[in-house]
Amino acid sequence: MTVTKNSFADLVRIEQLRRIESVHTKKLSYTSVANVDRYPVTDFKYADFTQRLTRRADLLIRDNGLEAHIAKSPQQFNHASRISLIVAVIFGGVAAGNAVSESDTLNIYWLLAVLLGFNLVALILWVIGISLRLQSLSSGVAAQLVSWTSFRKKDTEETIGSLASRAWWDSCLTGTVGKWRISVLTHKFWLAYLIAGLLLLILLMMAKQYNFIWGTTLLSEGSLPRLTEFLSSPLQFIGLETPDSHQISASRMGEGIQNSETRTAWARFLIGALLIYGLLPRLIALTFSVAMLRWAERGFKLDLYLPYYVELRQQLMTRRTTSKVVDADPLAGIEPTQIVQPRQTYLLPAGAHALGIELDDQACWPEALSCQYNIVDMQSLAEAVEYVKKLEGALVIGVAANRLPDRGIQRMIADLLAVTHSTPWLLLLNKNPAVPVAEGREMAWFRLAENCRIPAEHVITT
Q1: H helix and E strand count, the chain
Q2: β-sheet bridge partners, residue 211
Q3: Burial class of residue 402 (count of CB atoms within 10 Å of its CB; 0-12, 13-18, 19+)
Q4: Which residues of 157-188 are buried (b: 16+ CB within 10 A; e: fewer)?
Q5: How confident is the model at residue 434 (pLDDT cuts 50, 70, 90)?
Q6: How many Å apart are CA 401 and CA 444, to the nearest integer?
Q7: Which of 38, 199, 354, 446 is least surrounded, with the fewest CB atoms within 10 Å of its CB?
């Protein structure tokens, strides 16, 4: 069977279904997933497991009529995003309109401050927030308002819709994915603001003749001309005509009426400055944020250490090795002999090296493995550490599944993994196969594996 990687949307649907099942399991029908893929596999693959989870989720969502609840949250976010862009267009138009006085004069630096000043401050805050990983600075006020108003509504009852919305929020609007999704919305907001202001200015300058002026009270007389020459350098490089020193001096407030060449030079300077210093940085930031969002979505993974996924992994991927007693031989005498079917070791790699930690004589290892060391004290731990330093391949660490994993065992496992390059596996050995390991105890071992950085798919229960 060809295994393809699931999309981010598929993983979010699985997370939404997990939240719904955690509360409303008894209300759901599981008839359609009774015979979903359960055939054994020779090796665990994350993509294969998520494919089976996706098929299971699609069946449950379809048969229980959950599609409307699942799709509601992204639709709400899209509607809120469109509203924020409309607000940005209105703000941009109002800002440009108020900056242009009713007279025939246009204060060039006041207009640049209104259109580019707020945008520049917001862009600097975003860069600082991304660099220092500060969510409050990198997201922006408008984007935070959109996400908060749509998905932070507290429900008194955990309904199916609220659970699906909360799962979508946690997956799409928090963490790395959320940081870049909100960044994309922030850059779109400011682009809409700048484009609206620029288009309104172009329409006004096409319909009416303006004289461009500048003036200052606190700054020196030469500060704004030097700033103009500095801002004009990139514009001249791409071929835009900008005011020369004579035209800049002649445009000082109260110096007189401008000629057409001066007005044209100032108009091109204004448009070029908005394009180069406003739209271009935002477009670059938006492109970067979109690329990082796609990268973050591709890197998004389910937390396979959660009890929900542990249980489904055992069901869908045949994670447990099983022992089965068949009918006794009638010719065996008074005490019938029980024939035990050999254990299946689907996931244990061939030629693996096995170690035990504080095991007793009743520990039952799979037939394919032979325990080399049983660590019971500091001396045996030191010997085992020297042993695993020389190993190549897979290292299987056997522990008693029914005992409580404590910090001592975790420290021993960490010491072993710190000195070896072998692939680690954790084997939970059960003394009595007829008595299953308690779910809470098994989850504790999975969390220990997570703390020791042993992949969840490398934890096997016998």
Answers
A1: 17, 7
A2: 105
A3: middle
A4: eeebbbbbbbbbbbbbbeeebbbbbbbbbbbb
A5: low
A6: 10
A7: 38
Residue ranges per domain, the chain?
69-299, 353-461
CA distance 35 to 56: 10
C-alpha 275, offset from chain centre: 32
The number of beta carbons lying within 10 Å of the beta carbon of residue 25 is: 9
What are 29's two structure tokens?
């029908």
pLDDT at residue number 340: 38
pLDDT digits (tens, 9 = 90+) for 74-101: 999 999 899 999 999 999 999 888 877 6
DSSP assignment of 107-156 equals: EHHHHHIIIIIHHHHHHHHHHHHHHHT-HHHHH-HHHHHHHHHHH-PPPS
Query: 388 is written with which tokens?
Result: 């695993």
Tokens of 90: 């209105």
- Look at the block and give the residue holding tokens 């960490």: 414
Return the SS3 of 396: strand
Q: Please give the radius of gyration of the chain, using alpha carbons only, rounded to the nearest integer.
A: 33
Q: Nearest 10 degrees: CA dihedral of 306, 311, 314, 316?
A: -100
Report the alpha-carbon distance of residue 342 to residue 462 in Å, rounded: 12
Q: What pTM was estimated for this model as a whole?
A: 0.75
DSSP-derived secondary structure for 225-290? HHHHHHHHHHHHHTT-----HHHHHHTBTTS-PPPHHHHHHHHHHHHHHHIIIIIHHHHHHHHHHH
Residues 32, 59: contact at Cβ < 8 Å? yes
